[in-house]
Write a structure and sequence with these properties.
Blueprint lengths: L2 E4 L4 E3 L39 E4 L20 E4 L3 E7 L5 E8 L4 E5 L12 E7 L11 E8 L5 E7 L1 E2 L2 E2 L11 E2 L3 E4 L2 E4 L5 E9 L4 E8 L6 E7 L17 E4 L1 E4 L2 E7 L11 E7 L10 E6 L2 E2 L13 E2 L5 E4 L8 E4 L12 E4 L6 E5 L17 E6 L3 E9 L2 E7 L10 E5 L3 E6 L4 E7 L5 E8 L2
Parallel strand pairs: 4-11, 12-13, 16-23, 24-25, 28-30
Antiparallel strand pairs: 1-2, 1-21, 3-10, 4-5, 5-8, 6-7, 6-9, 9-10, 14-15, 16-17, 17-21, 18-19, 18-22, 20-21, 22-23, 26-27, 29-36, 30-35, 31-34, 31-36, 32-33, 32-35
């Protein structure tokens, strides 16, 4: 799953459930009415009688009483809209890496890569959502061919599927992009059909900091109900940035911070998979707490961050602005509960975090871990907020820290105790070991316990 980390250190899924959530591209650069862009857990109960003429080199699910092979695609669901094809259901458990759709005049092929394939559980499953960009996608009632293959092509699965029309629901009915739509005058918001409404974007100012890998926005809106901002990243040709498979990069969702009733800001660190240097513009929409939006998204070219004055309020993502030389942007007590301000880089942890200091002597040395106080805000592998804090020094070398004790969620190390920027993160793991270069310069290690507090032991080992 690709994620977006906001300034509060929280991560928002960019696609979820069992299909890739994208946004169809209209000719005017806007979005289809009724498409919230969110994936939802709303289930789809239609069987959709599918053509199950499947040919495979992989094992099938079994045989019938008369010896006829049982199709492994009997439960696949295929839905065709005006510009989308969605497929969902179980397939044999193989390391599928590519999927190809053949449909339309000339039997042309549309291929998707691993980003659109989801394999879950013991049986395995695949789910695709394809958004047309001139591809010959099938229409409702038409039969098309879907084939899957593993990396070297030695195992393949080929079958013909009949495309069903996308059903339409009323107020309160479940909806799901490319699977269930809403009646005219309604829109799909957070997986439910709701009355039309929501904010309209009237102006956008975008700023990009390639060094920090962050994006910031000022968005003028029609009312004061904006809670999130939806963002597509565009290149210099005004096209949506693509993943390595060629599929469009999923839209970003980030919390809106109200400045005035009709002006919000939003900023966050871009996922590592984004080619930051290729981002030339953004396409932006605003949403209310129900996930509703009105009007077409608005585009804006990205500009450079402004320069903050010394000791002024600041944006911790360093997208909207950067502090003067010699100062950094950090929260006054290390957490988003207090304002962020430019200032000298802190060399210690906030006193309230009750960090314990340990001068280790080398391999074989150990230290006790206990308590969970520190609300660290930025950890790539863990959204937790309550951690025990250790300030560790040791003779300069590469060590393996091995944890034993009460169950933990993650181990997390930083070069600065309270600064939230990702560049200060040295390591983050959900396991019980982490390799770190330690020295006489303090390294800050955080332990996130499953129960919120606990005890354990760290032991230094040599790295094999």
């Amino acid at each position: 799953m690709v994620e977006w980390m906001n300034a509060a250190g929280r991560t928002a899924a960019l696609w979820g459930g069992l299909f890739l959530a994208g946004c169809p591209s209209d000719t005017d650069g806007g979005r289809d009415r009724g498409d919230s862009g969110d994936s939802s857990d709303a289930s789809d109960s239609d069987d959709g009688g599918l053509d199950t003429d499947v040919h495979t080199d992989a094992e099938t699910d079994g045989d019938t009483d008369d010896g006829t092979p049982v199709s492994p695609w009997v439960a696949l669901d295929a839905r065709c809209g005006d510009d989308s094809l969605a497929i969902e259901g179980p397939v044999p458990d193989e390391a599928w890496t590519t999927a190809t759709v053949r449909a339309g005049a000339g039997d042309q092929a549309w291929q998707v890569g691993t980003e659109a394939l989801r394999l879950e559980g013991d049986v395995g499953g695949v789910a695709l959502t394809l958004v047309a960009h001139g591809a010959p996608l099938p229409v409702a009632g038409e039969t098309f061919e879907l084939s899957l293959a593993n990396a070297d092509g030695s195992v393949s699965l080929v079958g013909d599927l009949a495309c069903q029309a996308i059903p339409v629901g009323g107020v309160g009915d479940a909806c799901r992009e490319a699977f269930r739509a809403c009646d005219a005058g309604l829109q799909c918001a957070l997986g439910v059909c709701v009355d039309d409404g929501g904010p309209t974007v009237t102006a956008v100012e975008a700023r990009l900091n390639p060094t920090a890998g962050s994006l910031g926005l000022f968005v003028e809106v029609s009312d004061d109900e904006t809670s999130t901002v939806w963002v597509e990243l565009l290149n210099a040709q005004d096209d949506v940035l693509t993943l390595s498979s060629g599929q469009p990069f999923p839209p970003l969702l980030l919390p809106a911070v109200e400045i005035t009733p009709t002006l919000v800001s939003a900023s966050g660190w871009l996922p590592a998979s984004v080619p930051v240097d290729d981002v030339a513009a953004v396409r932006v929409a605003a949403r209310d707490a129900l996930g509703r939006t009105q009007g077409s998204p608005m585009e804006a070219l990205v500009d450079a961050p402004v320069a903050y004055l010394a000791f002024s309020l600041c944006d911790v993502t360093e997208a909207l602005g950067v502090c003067p030389t010699g100062q950094v942007c950090g929260y006054e007590d290390g957490t988003p509960a207090t304002p962020a301000r430019c200032g000298e880089a802190p060399v210690t942890c906030p006193a309230a975090w009750q960090a314990s200091t340990h001068a280790l002597t080398g391999v074989g040395d150990s230290v006790a871990v206990g308590g969970a106080v520190a609300p660290v805000v930025s950890a790539r592998c863990d959204e937790g907020a309550s951690r025990a804090t250790l300030v560790v020094t040791a003779p300069s070398d590469l060590y393996r820290l091995v944890y034993t004790g009460d169950p933990i969620v993650s181990l997390h190390a930083r070069s600065s105790c309270a600064l939230p920027q990702p560049r200060h993160e040295l390591a983050c793991t959900t396991g019980s070991t982490v390799d770190l270069i330690l020295s006489e310069v303090p390294t800050f290690v955080f332990v996130d316990f499953v129960a919120g507090s606990g005890t354990g032991t760290f032991t230094l080992e040599a790295v094999p």
